[in-house]
Specification:
60 residues, alpha+beta, two-stranded antiparallel sheet, elongated, binds zinc ion
């Protein structure tokens, strides 16, 4: 395996990380109640996933 010969300077390290930016989480909307839901997860409000009730939601 390659081993770095020199320690990366603070400038080079920070230049590399300057391109790393936080991105907004990709959220969809529940087709049942319209609440924002994370992908591959049951809706936190109505507890439905792909049109079926899979868990008890907090319907208020
Ligand atoms: Zn829902």
């Amino acid at each position: 395996m390659g081993v770095p010969k020199k320690r990366t300077s603070r400038q080079k390290r920070d230049q590399r990380r300057a391109h790393w930016k936080a991105t907004a989480p990709n959220v969809g909307t529940c087709p049942n109640c319209g609440e924002p839901v994370l992908p591959h997860r049951a809706c936190p409000k109505c507890g439905q996933y792909r049109g079926k009730a899979v868990q008890k939601g907090t319907e208020d």
